[in-house]
Design brief:
The chain has helices spanning about 35-40, 70-80, 95-105, 130-135, 140-165, 175-185, 190-200, 225-235, 255, 260-280; strands at about 1-5, 10-15, 20-25, 45-50, 90-95, 115, 215-220, 240-245. α5 packs antiparallel against α6 and α5 crosses α7 (about 190-200). It is globular, with a radius of gyration of 18 Å. The chain has 10 helices and 8 strands. It has a single domain, classed as 3-Layer(aba) Sandwich (Rossmann fold). It is about 45% helix and about 15% strand. It has about 280 residues and is of the alpha/beta class. It has an 8-stranded mixed β-sheet, sandwiched between helices.
Length: about 280
């Protein structure tokens, strides 16, 4: 992997193929390899870029005492600048979808298109006023859980709680993919796990109202209903937004249904290209 040196850490990333840049940002407690089915599919036509977000994968721990979606977006900006990427296509999953939304809000004309898998605006997926979050904060309980069961046990408890509450096979409908996600979380030190969780919990999402970047939102059938509703809000807010739902899949929709996810992504990008050519003629 290549390395991007920052003042407070090193971001590891990987590039494959040539062509228009297609940048993938993974979900929480995962790493860039979560996009492997998409890299293998799209690298023949695009220059694919994956990165390991702070606290994850080969990037691992950094010196920052606190993480935030804004900080992760700063890192994405730095990577795009380092690679001199103009008008990239941005593809984010879960936490990565938040990073992409933050980037689009900051730079509404900089991306040529966006794909948001397992798209979510906030955690929990019901927007709580920022002032109230400190009063209802789950962070003390999270810290206790991490001290007692570590990252893997805490992640497993979160999955069990969501499934018990919603009745949905939320994370993945495939036991192997679910197990791999738990293994990935187990590799993250407890201190980093907490920082990642806090970044998700504290994020105040942008409205994206009227954003003109063509945006595709993709959810799995077994996604939590509140998350689906937030995805619909995103697709409705942007000027050119589309939301699709894939059957037999959960939150990790790109892994549960990789061929279907690749197909709808390719169709979407073809339509974006066709619309761009039409508008320029």
């Amino acid at each position: 992997m290549a390395a991007l040196e920052l003042d407070d850490g090193t971001i590891h990333y990987e590039t494959t193929g040539d062509g228009q840049p297609l940048v993938f940002v993974h979900g929480g407690w995962m790493d860039g390899t979560a996009w492997q089915p998409q890299v293998e599919h799209f690298a023949d036509e695009y220059r694919t870029i994956t990165l390991d977000v702070r606290g994850h994968g080969n990037t691992g721990a950094t010196d920052a005492e606190q993480y935030s979606i804004e900080l992760f977006t700063d890192d994405l900006e730095a990577l795009l600048s380092r690679l001199d990427l103009e008008r990239p296509i941005l593809c984010g999953l879960s936490l990565g979808s938040m990073v992409v939304q933050e980037f689009l809000d900051r730079h509404p004309d900089s991306a040529s298109a966006a794909i948001l898998g397992g798209a979510v605006r906030s955690m929990p997926p019901i927007e709580v006023p920022t002032a109230m979050k400190s009063l209802w904060s789950p962070l003390p309980a999270l810290t206790t859980s991490l001290s007692m069961t570590g990252s893997a046990g805490t992640f497993q408890s979160m999955l069990t709680s969501i499934q018990a509450t919603t009745g949905q096979r939320w994370l993945s409908v495939d036991p192997e993919i679910r197990a791999e996600a738990i293994d990935s979380a187990s590799d993250i030190p407890s201190a980093e796990y907490r920082k990642i969780f806090e970044a998700l919990y504290q994020y105040d999402p942008p409205a994206l109202t009227g954003l003109e970047t063509p945006t595709l939102v993709v959810h799995g059938e077994q996604e939590v209903p509140l998350v689906k509703r937030q995805g619909a809000q995103i697709a409705t807010a942007v000027a050119d937004g589309t939301r699709l739902e894939l059957s037999d899949s959960g939150h990790l929709v790109n892994l549960d249904r990789p061929r279907a996810f690749n197909r709808v992504t390719a169709d979407f990008l073809e339509s974006v290209t066709a619309a761009s050519l039409y508008s320029n003629n």
